[in-house]
Amino acid sequence: MSYSIGITTYQYRFDQWLKPLVKKIKEFRPDVEIHITVNGEYNKKFDEEYRKNILAFASECSNTFVVMYPNFRSLSKLWNNLLINSTNHKVLLLNDDIIINDRSFFDYLEQVPYNMFKINKSWSHIMLDREVVDSVGWFDERLLGIGEEDGDFEWRYGNKTLGDTIPLVVLPGIINRVDHNNCLRGINIINGKYSKFNFDFTYNTKYEESPTGRSYGIQDRRLVSKSPTPRLHSAEKFYWENRDNL
């Protein structure tokens, strides 16, 4: 299985979570390609010391690439760009507060027969195939904060496939710690750690509840689409099909 790894992170998880995670990945799979997207803080200048430290750290890790956002951007934006920047169609997306404590995780991961699958029932660690993402529709970048992007994609995946769900696999050697250090400082939040903007946009603008609706992954609500996802990154498929013709 050929795949890249994409990790989203931000300033307050650098020492405690990101560095140990990347070091473990490189210990178990030194040649794997890693992409790190570093989000900015909302209405706050990007920390210069942090910028230097994360670039210095990444420079010591082989085949590891960093993209930084001076301004806070949505998780949908970060995920889309991780998929676009990777050299492989398959990308293992990881939250930064993940612990991989055994190489058996990768041994089992690389034997999974699916192109896309959720690991241990969570979007905190999920293998995505960007060709499938492109066919379903990229993550909706109108969700300007964090939250609802995973359920929205699952609804659209189910709608596209006439009821299929993303396969689930159970793998050992990986722990989702769910660190509650708030990455949304200054942003209105709901349900403890998610953007209220994303919640309101999803359920007031993008979808509406209806007895005739479908419940594909968004909190088991029966929904119909009111505002379809824009056709994003439409040239990527053309690039994949023609990049060897240059």
Notes on the structure:
The protein has about 250 residues and is α/β, with parallel strands linked by helices. It has one domain (about 5-240): Spore Coat Polysaccharide Biosynthesis Protein SpsA, Chain A, CATH 3.90.550. Helix content is about 35%, strand content about 25%. It is built from eight helices and 13 strands. It has helices at about 15-30, 50-60, 75-85, 105-110, 130-135, 150-160, 195-205, 235-240, and strands spanning about 5-10, 35-40, 65-70, 90-95, 100, 115-120, 120-130, 170, 175, 190, 195, 205-215, 225. The strands form four sheets. Strands 3-2-1-4-7-6-8 form a seven-stranded mixed β-sheet, sandwiched between helices. Strands 5-9 form a two-stranded antiparallel ribbon. The protein is globular. The mean pLDDT is about 95.
Summarize it:
The protein has 246 residues and is an alpha/beta fold.
State which percent range the strand residues make up.
15-25%
Q: H/E element string?
A: EHEHEHEEHEEHHEEEEHEEH
CATH architecture: Alpha-Beta Complex
Radius of gyration: 18 Å
How many domain modules? 1
Largest sheet: 7 strands, mixed
Helix content: 25-40%
> End-to-end distance, in Å?
26 Å
| Strand order in space, largest sheet | 3-2-1-4-7-6-8
Query: Class in CATH?
Result: Alpha Beta
Global morphology: globular
| Helix-and-strand structural type | alpha/beta
Low-confidence stretches: none
Quaternary structure classification: single chain
CATH topology: Spore Coat Polysaccharide Biosynthesis Protein SpsA, Chain A
